[in-house]
Design goal:
heterotetramer, A alpha+beta (322), B alpha+beta (324), C alpha+beta (278), D alpha+beta (289), B: 324 residues, alpha+beta, Cyclophilin, 2 domains, seven-stranded mixed β-barrel, six-stranded antiparallel beta sheet, 5 helices, 21 strands, elongated, D: 289 residues, Gyrase A, domain 2, eight-stranded mixed beta sheet, four-stranded antiparallel beta sheet, 7 helices, 14 strands, 28% helix
Chain lengths: 322, 324, 278, 289
């Protein structure tokens, strides 16, 4: 059992791949935003890659372990300390009963992951322990953790002293410029050639008003094809309006002139077009980007997107440990 | 066109067989109660038996003719006169424009029928011109005739000089006793043996509170079979109560201890049992009987009832007519 | 109880009555309506009319066109072919009828009865009390909270005999004794376990609980809904009462009188007995 | 129009949008649900989830188990296997909602929006004007005058897009611009040609003018209607709004709070496409209730 002393900015229980099977009823998958780092944290403490852990956003929590545990911290650098002593990232550690783990603000990256051997053992809702705070379900009472709460931990037999090989870790650069892969579609035929050129050639800035629901981007104006401008009235007036349809997770949703990348807690349907979609392999970069970071988009094919995803999946196994 | 000078007690436009196929809408068939006399009247003036004519109850109307016409009077004897001259029943007669036909109180029988060549040409409602007063439909403005109204007529046929052979007419007895044929059922099994015997052996007096909806009868008490006494509570507490069901026309509907024969303008459904049903061949007797007259009931089978009806139907044809 | 074999009894020389059971289980009406539909489907020559009720179906026939024994045989065959009641599906329209509960007109009829015949409890309060409801408001809620099944249209032109499809909304009450002298047309009333809507100003025995501004039939067929049928409802239709206030009542009444009222009736569904019983 | 051949559009590496047409119509939406049902029935390995919408199905798939091309081939074949939908009859529940129209809560929300975000015409009055109605009373009559088809679920847990089944009851409205930051829970709104009940206090863009005390989703699963599922609506359901007064609203709300409210649901009817089309042919769409 773990007691929450300080909750951090917005720390939530997540599992991977999240809440699958209820999308049609409006439940997004949720789950860890940077699932690469998340899965490796689990692998480090001997858990299955999908077991529930904590996602810490921008500012990590302070936690007291009420019993001994094996833990690992991955992802963003939040200067974790154990009873004041620095704790190495990307490695598994023993924590003794009564010890305090403290994470600070993210120095590099944005989201840090804490895995505990045995996993966080909250009751699953609709098949998942992931927190979806907008609907108040999953995790601890449906929301980010609060001071004074306790996190139940499952049973496990595990060993400390393991480390993720550097080559198997995601690398968070210093430049604050991200190369983000994107696949054209589903609605790429609604924006014109000039817009397509623009999309891959300009810098897009991540707005501060971004969260696990959507990533708003600042950039140039969009221009459209006749499909968007001459359409049946029920689609809506604006060129970016379309009959309500389903939204892929990761899609670049064009709301008027504002592109919003719909991420893990995004709505499942709506009435705007989606000219591009960020493939799952690039999600870790979105998760680790901070407001005002620059996104540059590289187009990939569906097949390339699958390859990139498989490459990461292959890294999220005990083979990546040393 | 015919002008109504006096309407009589309750004179209505009817046709035969009335408004059929409308149970689902909640409509009783209406039509003439004594359909034997009614049909013969139509035949006499050269109309199809289904043409609309007048049913006069107890006291007939006074009518002035707006065109030359051939008419026939059948059923009850209401002492008819044309411009003061007595008219025979069961015969086709010529009437000239401006002449006045007067019917008085029924001397023998209860319902007189008047057919006019071409038929009465009021607007049909659900396929029939029969008046159904309770709902205010059919006939002239949906009700019995009123003084001052005008009855529209169809194209004249001008066939006069015929009469109904004596053997083809219903004969209204003067002893004020009637034998009415009934088929047991649908709910005869709700009455015990004694009650069934009593029904067939007793005299039943026609109550004055009778009309085209129902004929009330006065007679001995009814007794019931077990089925009527021990039943699911939703049937109701009285032995004669049952779960609402549809009523056959002619059913002898037992309301508590009062039997009511459901006739042409009846309610089509209700919550009382129907131990017997008066057959259609006996309806002319209902139509011609008067309050306080006596009924005796005779049980017949469905087959016998249908044979009796066919006999009457056979008489309602051209073969029953002869020249005067 | 559903009879293993329906009882078929003669009603004189032109009628037979088929009884499917001896209580008022709604399934018996489904069977009666199923037989009615099957008869229509079979197109049996000589069947003049049919009249369904709670557990029975009256059939009028022309003995010259249809032999009595043949009719009985056909009816038995058709009834057997209906199969178990759960397999029945019936064409069923759903009519939304505006209903002003506790309206001034039925109140006047009740008050007139109290003055001229004998004093009695206010009908809605009486029905509410007998059925263990907290107040008349609850009566309105319960009565309008279910779809009602049209058992039959009968007795008087267009008059529907209704019972609630949701058994939780069943209301029972004894009828007036002696009967009322008059009833406002379009009064909504309950008696026994049924609801009906009076179509004419006639005496009556059911307890008055409200009134609808829309007619159940119209001889003039002036309103578009009556173009094809003078009567609004048919057996196997359903009715859902929608409570309205006096202002809405007057508004609808005005449109009915103008001939512009659009009835709210849907006709794109079939009633599945199996699904209802499940 | 409904396409003879659907279009399959990639949505990254995990999603494919299947576009069956580009119109908002019952027929197109019914095709969507029919195809979705076939896909589910076929249990194609690697197809994870579906979101059927007005004229599209978003298909989520696992690229390790099935390729994009195979999804297109297999799902495309299912679409082609569907002949005429005219003879279809489907089980369809009808759910009744008590509704307080022109309620104080949506009014307060509107006032808050005007004070904090932007001035705008009051939603019910806007609806009356845009739809050429006589007054608020007629707005209530028209909106409560028909059954609504649950055309799509999503956007938010429990939320459904309701499409009027009676052309006489179609109401259209532009959406809020910019959107509201909050909406009263269970407010009822109209946007585009659709109607929705807000399941919770969420942002929103539909014009709001009514509120129901009956919830459409409940994470605690206390009320009987939620025993099987957190969310009330299923595709193929229909909804009908019943106007109530404040007293009745409060009564229902109390029952909901007590955990004893029973949703009024008719689940014994089959919706017949042929009958619906025949019925539509008898309707004068210019008429209003």
């Amino acid at each position: 059992m773990i007691s929450v002393i300080k909750p951090g900015l917005e720390t939530s229980v997540q599992d991977w791949p999240g809440r699958i099977g209820y999308w049609e009823q409006g439940f997004p998958p949720s789950g860890p935003f940077d699932s690469w780092s998340f899965r490796l944290a689990n692998v480090l403490v001997g858990n299955q890659p999908g077991e529930a852990g904590l996602e810490c956003q921008f500012m990590g929590p302070t936690l007291r372990f009420e019993r001994a545990a094996i833990i690992a911290v991955t992802g963003a650098e939040m200067n974790p300390t154990l009873d004041g002593a620095p704790l190495e990232l990307w490695a598994s550690h023993v924590v003794k009963a009564g010890q305090i783990l403290a994470l600070g603000p993210a120095r590099k990256g944005a989201r840090s992951y804490i895995a505990v051997a045995g996993g966080i053992d909250v009751p699953p809702v609709l098949g998942s322990r992931s927190t979806f705070h907008m609907a108040g379900i999953g995790g601890i009472e449906g929301h980010a953790i609060k001071a004074g709460q306790t996190l139940p931990v499952g049973e496990s037999k595990s060993v400390p002293g393991r480390r993720v090989k550097p080559a198997a870790r995601p690398t968070i650069g210093e430049s604050r410029v991200w190369q983000i892969e994107a696949v054209r579609g589903p609605n790429d035929d609604w924006v014109d050639e000039a817009a397509h050129q623009r999309f891959v050639s300009v810098d897009w800035k991540l707005q501060a008003r971004s969260n696990r629901t959507g990533y708003r981007l600042d950039g140039p104006e969009w221009t459209f094809t006749p499909r968007a401008t001459n359409k049946r009235p029920e689609h809506g007036e604006h060129p970016s309006n379309v009959l309500d349809h389903g939204y892929p997770v990761g899609t670049v949703n064009l709301c008027g002139q504002t592109p919003i990348i719909l991420v893990v807690d995004a709505p499942s349907t709506g009435g705007f077009i989606n000219p591009y979609t960020v493939p799952s392999a690039a999600f870790w970069k979105l998760a680790q980007a901070k407001p005002n970071d620059i996104f540059k988009f590289n187009l990939v094919t569906v097949d390339q997107a699958h390859e990139l995803r498989r490459a990461i999946d292959r890294l999220c196994t005990p083979a990546s440990l040393e | 066109m015919i002008e109504v000078l006096k309407p009589g007690l309750e004179t209505t436009v009817q046709d035969y067989p009335g408004r059929k196929g409308c149970f689902g809408y909640g409509f009783a068939p209406s039509g003439p109660i004594d359909h034997w006399s009614f049909r013969l009247a139509n035949l006499l003036v050269g109309n199809p038996v289904s043409a609309a004519g007048l049913e006069c109850q107890f006291i007939g109307p006074t009518l002035r003719f707006g065109r030359d016409a051939v008419i026939a009077l059948t059923g009850a004897d209401m002492g008819a006169t044309l411009d003061g001259t007595a008219l025979p029943l069961w015969q086709s007669l010529t009437v000239y424009t401006g002449q006045t036909l007067v019917l008085g109180a029924a001397r023998l029988g209860a319902r007189g029928y008047i057919a006019i060549d071409g038929g009465i040409d009021t607007e049909p409602f659900l396929g029939s011109r029969a008046t159904y007063s309770m709902a205010g439909v059919g006939g002239l403005d949906g009700g019995a005739l009123k003084a001052g109204q005008h009855l529209p007529l169809g194209a004249p046929r001008r066939i006069a000089g015929r009469r109904v052979r004596a053997a083809a007419r219903p004969s209204i007895a003067t002893d004020r006793q009637w034998t009415i044929e009934v088929v047991p059922g649908p709910n005869d099994d709700w009455i015990d043996e004694t009650g069934q015997r009593r029904f067939l052996e007793s005299e039943w007096k026609l109550s004055a509170r009778s009309n085209r909806v129902g004929f009330r009868l006065e007679g001995p008490e009814w007794s019931f079979a077990d089925k009527a006494i021990h039943k699911a509570p939703e049937h109701g507490s009285n032995p004669s109560n049952t779960i609402d069901h549809g009523y056959p026309i002619g059913a002898i509907n037992l309301c508590g201890q009062t039997p009511i024969i459901l006739v042409n303008d009846t309610l089509t459904l209700g919550g009382f049992i129907n131990p017997y049903t008066v057959i259609s061949a006996a309806f002319w007797k209902l139509g011609q009987s008067r309050p306080n007259e006596i009924y005796r009931f005779k049980a017949v089978t469905v087959r016998e009832a249908q044979a009796l009806r066919r006999e009457i139907d056979a008489l309602c044809g051209e073969a029953s007519l002869e020249p005067t | 109880m559903i009879f293993a074999e329906p009882i078929i009894a003669p009603g004189g020389d032109r009628f037979v009555v088929v009884y499917f059971g001896d209580d008022a289980a709604i399934e018996l009406n489904f069977l009666a309506l199923g037989l009615k539909a099957a008869l229509a489907e079979a197109g049996l020559k000589g069947v003049v009319d049919t009249n369904p009720c709670y557990n029975s179906l009256v059939i009028e026939y022309d003995p010259d066109a249809l032999d009595y024994d043949d009719l009985l045989r056909e009816l038995r065959a058709l009834a057997a072919a209906l199969g178990p009641v759960d397999t029945l599906e019936l064409s069923s329209r759903l009519a939304y009828l505006p209903a002003m509960y506790l309206d001034p007109w039925t109140k006047e009829a009740i008050e007139d009865y109290c003055k001229r015949v004998k004093p009695r409890e206010f009908d809605p309060a009486f029905v509410a009390r007998l059925n263990g409801l907290s107040d008349v408001k609850q009566l309105v809620r319960v009565h309008s909270g279910t779809e009602h099944w049209v058992i039959s249209v009968c007795s008087l032109p267009g008059l529907p005999l209704l019972r609630p499809l949701d058994p939780r909304c069943l209301l029972t009450s004894p009828k007036y004794d002696p009967p009322r002298l008059w009833t406002p047309p379009n009064a909504i009333c309950t008696g026994g376990m049924s609801t009906s809507i009076h179509t004419l100003r006639v005496p009556g025995g059911y307890n008055l609980i409200g009134r609808t501004p829309v007619p159940m039939w119209q001889a003039t067929q002036a309103l578009p809904i009556f173009k094809d049928s003078v009567v609004l409802l048919r057996a196997a239709d359903r009715v859902k009462f929608v409570p309205i206030d006096l202002e809405e009542y007057h508004d609808i009444e005005a449109r009915v009188n103008e001939g512009t009222y659009a009835f709210n009736v849907t006709n794109y569904q079939r009633f599945s007995v199996g699904a209802y019983r499940a | 129009m409904i396409y003879d051949e659907p279009r399959f559009l990639p949505g990254g590496d995990k999603f494919i949008e299947m576009e069956l047409g580009d119109e908002m119509s019952f027929d197109c939406n019914f095709l969507v649900h029919s195809v979705a049902a076939l896909i589910r029935q076929a249990k194609i390995k690697g197809i994870v989830e579906l979101v059927p919408e007005l004229s599209t199905i978003m298909i989520s798939y696992d690229g390790d188990q099935i390729s994009f091309a195979d999804v297109v081939r297999e799902v495309g074949a299912l679409r082609r296997s569907i002949g005429s939908l005219e003879d279809q009859e489907l089980d369809s529940r009808l759910i009744y909602f008590p509704v307080l129209y022109v309620d104080p809560w949506t009014r307060a929300c509107y006032d808050d929006y005007c004070a904090k975000i932007a001035k705008k015409e009051w939603d019910p009055e806007l609806l009356v004007r845009v739809n050429n109605l006589a007054n608020l009373q007629q707005l209530i009559r028209v909106h409560s005058g028909c059954e609504y088809w649950v055309a799509a679920l999503g956007f938010w847990p429990g939320l459904a897009s309701h499409m009027p089944l009676d052309p006489r009851c179609v109401l259209t409205a532009p959406k809020y611009n910019p959107p509201r930051t909050w909406t009263p829970k269970q407010a009822i709104g109209v946007g585009g040609g659709l109607c929705a009940i807000y399941p919770d206090q969420t942002p929103g863009g539909y014009q709001i003018f009514a509120r129901t005390p009956a919830p459409i989703w409940e994470p605690t699963q206390t009320l009987p209607a939620f025993k099987q599922s957190l969310a009330l609506f299923r595709p193929g359901d229909r909804v009908r709004f019943v106007p109530v007064d404040r007293e009745e609203y409060d009564y229902v709300e109390r029952k909901v709070t007590e955990g004893t409210y029973q949703h009024v649901v008719s689940d014994f009817q089959k919706f017949s496409i042929k009958r619906y089309h025949a019925w539509l042919a008898t309707i004068d769409p210019k008429e209003r209730f």
